[in-house]
């Protein structure tokens, strides 16, 4: 096992001292640990984000493995715990706060209090809207990076990052809807998750344009 | 008024009616009204005027 100091030195060498200092001092929340959230968490862990707040009420299901970052032996475990175990294999010295709970208008602000940025990674459109409305109202200093439109098999080039509101960034094609019978396929969901993680990275480096 | 960056003329009504005209469900949107997030319960009682700037984000499922 590498020591914390050895791991830190590796990240500083690859990412640069200033960038790594910013990443290590940051706190990022992820709401929903499915196809988007589980992959966002891996990216942010590889960046060495100091504190990650991970929230999902669900258990890993056999139907998740095709696009989420879990493996067959995770089936039946809470997603928070299964993901935490994988993240510890990437960086064991970060702070991980797990919330195995359903996020609601009542608890969202307290779960994500103190986060510089929250990634919205829910499945349902009404839940996405609920979370974003709640966090924009209740956490006045927190930025939100949301996944919006990644179902189906259209070109990955249609997935973009946009900045429609001062503290809200959207990643996705804005259009492909699960409701229209489109499936969720791993590569395209992964592209959207990488867009979200990239915007988080840029914001933490002080780059506010998309 | 401006809606999502475009001039939107000949409209009189509430934000809720604006959403209905655009075929958008109030449960699946976030609305910014002159730079501030507009709580959903105010959609029915907010009547935008000519100089107002409105940004509507409509969410689709999948994650």
Would you give an account of this structure?
The complex is a heterodimer of chains A (210) and B (63). Chain A has 210 residues and is α/β, with parallel strands linked by helices. Chain A has a single domain, classed as Rossmann fold. Chain A contains 7 helices and 7 strands, in the order ααβαβαβαβαβββα. In chain A, helix 1 packs across helix 2, helix 3 runs parallel beside helix 4 and helix 3 crosses helix 7. The N and C termini of chain A lie far apart (37 Å). By secondary structure, chain B is of the alpha+beta class. The longest helix of chain B is centred in the first third of the chain and has 7 residues. The mean pLDDT of chain B is 95. Chain B has one domain: Ubiquitin-like (UB roll).
Descriptive keywords:
heterodimer; A: 210 residues; alpha/beta; Rossmann fold; seven-stranded mixed β-sheet; 17% strand; B: 63 residues; alpha+beta; Ubiquitin-like (UB roll); five-stranded mixed β-sheet; 1 helix; 5 strands; 27% strand; globular
Strand composition percent of chain B: 25-35%
Question: From the alpha-carbon coordinates, what is the Rg of chain B to the nearest angstrom?
Answer: 11 Å
What oligomeric state best describes the polypeptide chains here? heterodimer
Q: What's the architecture of chain B, going by CATH?
A: Roll
Which fold name corresponds to the CATH topology of chain A?
Rossmann fold
The level-1 CATH class of chain A: Alpha Beta
Unreliable stretches covering 5 or more consecutive residues of chain B: none
Estimate the helix proportion of chain A, in percent. 25-40%
Order of helices and strands of chain B: EEHEEE
Give the strand tally of chain A: 7
Spatial strand sequence of the major β-sheet of chain A: 3-2-1-4-5-7-6
**CATH top level class name of chain B:** Alpha Beta
Main beta sheet of chain B, described? 5 strands, mixed
Largest sheet of chain A: 7 strands, mixed
Rg measurement of chain A, Å: 16 Å
């Amino acid at each position: 096992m590498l020591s914390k100091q050895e791991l830190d030195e590796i990240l500083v060498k690859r990412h640069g001292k200033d960038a790594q200092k910013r990443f290590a001092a940051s706190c990022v929340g992820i709401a929903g640990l499915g196809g988007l959230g589980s992959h966002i968490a891996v990216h942010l862990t590889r960046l060495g984000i100091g504190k990650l707040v991970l929230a999902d009420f669900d258990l890993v299901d056999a139907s998740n493995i095709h696009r989420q970052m879990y493996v067959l032996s995770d089936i039946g475990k809470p997603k928070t715990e299964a993901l935490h175990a994988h993240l510890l294999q990437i960086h064991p010295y970060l702070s991980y706060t797990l919330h195995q709970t359903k996020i609601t208008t009542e608890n969202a602000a307290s779960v994500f209090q103190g986060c510089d940025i929250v990634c919205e990674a829910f499945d349902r459109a009404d839940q996405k809207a609920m979370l974003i409305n709640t966090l924009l109202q209740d956490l006045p200093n927190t930025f939100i990076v949301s996944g919006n439109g990644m179902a189906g098999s259209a070109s990955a080039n249609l997935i973009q990052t946009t900045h429609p509101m001062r503290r809200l960034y959207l990643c996705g094609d804005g259009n492909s809807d699960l409701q229209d019978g489109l499936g969720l396929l791993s590569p395209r969901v992964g592209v959207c998750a990488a867009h979200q993680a990239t915007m988080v990275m840029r914001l933490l480096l002080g780059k506010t344009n998309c | 008024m401006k809606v999502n960056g475009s001039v939107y003329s000949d409209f009189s009504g509430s934000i809720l009616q604006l959403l209905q005209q655009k075929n958008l469900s109030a449960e699946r949107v976030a609305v910014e009204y002159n730079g501030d997030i507009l709580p959903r319960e105010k959609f029915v009682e907010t009547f935008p005027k000519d100089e107002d700037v409105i940004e509507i984000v409509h969410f689709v499922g999948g994650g």
